[in-house]
Amino acid sequence: MLTQTTRYGFSTAVPLPYEEAVERTRAELAKEGFGVLTEIDVRATLRKKLDVDFRPYVILGACNPPYAYQALQAERDIGLLLPCNVVVYAGDEPGTSVVAAMDPEAALKLTGNAAIEALASEVRARLERALAAVAS
Fold it and tell me: How far apart are CA 31 and CA 25, in angstroms?
């Protein structure tokens, strides 16, 4: 079940170990036309830069090229709000994870551009389907 957890994102808790949740998230994003352009291993970065321990946590920069191209045609500086970030992190209970996505409607509303807002709705629907599929 997807939950709007913040004004800028939605998430789902899944009964999967972290590694499996990351793998399934990548696969379901691909089914919706998203590629992962960037990957930030937050846990490793915090360990290296601050010498602190943190739960397994990855930020995936997901991009759907046809939609990104449409957005760039409508507004050249839209790249400041791209790609769509999707996070996967180990849940509080062993063997569970959380998968969350940036809400493109909330983020792209900043533009005030009606053409981009309509596009954001379709991108949100695809992200919602991907997250729901990870949970099923």
Answer: 10
